[in-house]
Design a protein that fits this description.
Layout: E1 3-5, H1 12-16, E2 26-33, E3 47-54, E4 68-72, H2 92-101, E5 109-113, E6 126-127, E7 131-132, H3 133-148, E8 158-163, H4 165-176, E9 183-187, H5 204-209, H6 214-231, E10 246-249, E11 252-255, H7 257-264, H8 268-278, E12 284-290, H9 294-310, E13 315-319, H10 327-344
Parallel strand pairs: 4-5, 4-8, 8-9, 9-12, 12-13
Antiparallel strand pairs: 1-2, 2-3, 3-5, 6-7, 10-11
């Protein structure tokens, strides 16, 4: 488990912010080996790169411990995209530095794992075909960070944030492991329920029904093929999945209720129900999406209805815009200040 300090200029992200004197924050290029990823059949390395932001005081105050924000990226993305300007010029290190210097947020550590896989979408889910991506986050990553960095290792000092597929992952992991993360913050969480691009009438189902080998289909169908491999994975099938919830037969779309149930059991609404049945202490939950994200808003509506029926508290926001056109603004004026307020509250109350 190798760590490269930014001062060594050993990686691209280091070159972005070469001044790492005692008054500056630091980016560490780290790596985590995940046993649960070794058995994947798509050729992904079980050693995953992790970018770690350490605040300005970290190297000066050698006994101080810090809360941690874990940040999950979306499909076909990498953690470098939080830093390289792809989102309206956003550099997360600069943004966090600026807010902390202004006193708008307390100092905290930010952990950005690389969860991109051969399909471009692993859904942060344990799968016999693509590997145990949820275990990578919940067990391996958190344990590594707590062991190698001065963290405040309690659920009330850990926040899990994700965008798009990462938003799905934040919700799914947060509901399955509320003992690990005290706050989950889902930004434009994709693909919650059989709505939008997953609706029964969606063209993806006939397309997936015709797949015979994942390698020939990944470019066009990676997002949902990855979901099939994650939710109903099969190591021996060249498609990577057993069956589909909706299949094309003789020109008609036929529903398979048993497969639908297996998929739904891995999605946030059912995972929230399972959390409630276990009687676990629910995390603080915030969900947001853009007004132009019709399919995503449909999925969020399903989740809201479920949370309401369970009497699980949450807050949510709809902002004007689409899926990625206001990421920088939402991070700097919404998510980061909200996380900072939550970290600053002794009671772990809602950030809003």
């Amino acid at each position: 488990m190798k760590r490269v300090w930014c001062v060594a200029a050993a990686a691209l992200v280091c070159a972005m912010n070469p001044d790492t004197g005692s008054g500056q924050s630091t980016l560490v290029v780290d790596s985590v080996s995940s046993p649960g990823l070794r058995a994947n059949v798509v050729g992904d390395s079980p050693v995953r790169k992790v970018l770690v932001y350490l605040p300005a005081s970290y190297r000066r105050e050698s006994t101080r411990r810090y809360p941690v924000l874990y940040l999950l990226h979306g499909a076909t993305s990498t953690p470098e995209e939080w830093l390289n300007g792809v989102y309206q010029g956003m550099n997360l290190q600069v943004a966090v530095d600026s807010l902390a210097t202004a006193g708008a947020i307390p100092e905290f550590i930010v952990v950005m794992p690389d969860a991109n896989n051969a399909l471009g979408a692993d859904w942060y889910t344990n799968s016999p075909a693509t590997g145990h991506w949820q275990d990578f986050v919940v067990r391996d990553l958190v344990a590594h960070v707590d062991q190698h960095y001065r963290t405040d290792a309690s659920r009330r000092r850990r926040a899990l944030v994700g965008h798009s597929m990462g938003g799905f992952g934040a919700l799914a992991i947060g509901f399955e492991h509320p003992d690990v993360f005290g706050l989950i913050y889902a930004i434009s969480p994709c693909c919650i329920g059989f709505v939008g691009r997953l609706a029964p009438s969606a063209p993806v189902w006939p397309a997936l029904s015709g797949v015979t080998n994942w390698k020939s289909a990944v470019d066009q169908l990676g997002l949902v093929l990855g979901m099939a491999a994650a939710f109903d994975g099969d190591r021996s099938d060249p498609r990577l999945f057993r069956e589909l919830p909706f299949e094309s037969r003789n020109g008609a779309t036929v529903a398979n209720p048993a497969v639908q149930s297996r998929w739904l059991a891995r999605m946030p609404p059912d995972l929230a129900s399972a959390m409630a049945r276990r009687g676990e202490h629910e995390p603080t939950i915030h969900i947001e999406a853009g007004s132009q994200e019709a399919g995503i808003l449909e999925g969020i509506a399903l989740l809201r209805n479920r949370l309401d029926s369970l009497r699980v508290r949450y807050s949510d926001t709809v902002f004007v815009g689409g899926h990625i056109d206001r990421v920088r603004e939402r991070f700097t004026t919404g998510m980061l200040p909200d996380i900072g307020r939550w970290f600053g509250l002794t009671g772990g109350a809602s950030p809003r």
